[in-house]
Amino acid sequence: MSDPATSDAGPPYGSDWIRRLLPHRYPMLMIDRVLEIEPGRRIVALKNVSHNEDFFVGHFPEEPVMPGVLVIEALAQAAGLIALAQRDGASGLHIYLTGVDKAKFRRPVVPGDQLRLEAEVIRLRSTHGRFACRALVDDKVAVQAICSSSILDTERS
């Protein structure tokens, strides 16, 4: 497998590398940069929360708060990178969120926050995975959950 640190100009695991592995695009791509990754084991990624995010228009105009479901989505995308990176971004592989357990929303996420997304593998098989995830802002847990996913080869389906 190619080394993710050398496969992208700029940050160790920047946007080009992320877009090669994840099918998500604006406005649903929730990972800005990967700081650390051990494919098949763990990841640390970042999501910068900007005032310009589309969801702040209606959630809520007077007191903008990032919807919790989108924080979960960001965690699921980070977890997906763990599984897809170990397969070297094989063409046609997609990972889908299939379950969320034990979700806890500890504090709101607001414009200007930087989400530190951490995920660790609980179980990872060829067709599914389960991950312990947490999103932190300023070293304080904002959201934590267990995310489950299915891994599908869309070229073979």
Give me the secondary-structure category. alpha+beta
- Biggest sheet: strands, sense, closure? 6 strands, antiparallel
Number of helices: 2
Distance between the termini: 24 Å
Estimate the strand proportion. 35-45%
Gyration radius, rounded: 15 Å
Mean pLDDT, nearest integer? 90
Order of helices and strands: HEEHEEEE
Helix content estimate: 10-25%
In total, how many beta strands? 6
Task: Give, in spatial order, the strands making up the sheet with the most strands.
Answer: 1-2-4-5-6-3
- Can you tell me the overall shape? globular
Question: Could you write a compact summary of the structure shown?
Answer:
The protein is α+β, with helices and mostly antiparallel strands. The protein contains 2 helices and 6 strands.
Provide tags for this entry.
157 residues, six-stranded antiparallel sheet, alpha+beta, 2 helices
Structure explained in plain terms:
The chain is an alpha+beta fold and 157 residues long. It is built from 2 helices and 6 strands, in the order αββαββββ. A 6-stranded antiparallel sheet has the order 1-2-4-5-6-3, covered by helices on one side. The longest helix has 18 residues, at 68-85. The protein is globular, with a radius of gyration of 15 Å.
Task: Provide the fold topology.
Layout (H helix, E strand, L loop, with lengths): L14 H7 L11 E6 L3 E7 L19 H18 L7 E13 L8 E11 L3 E10 L2 E14 L4
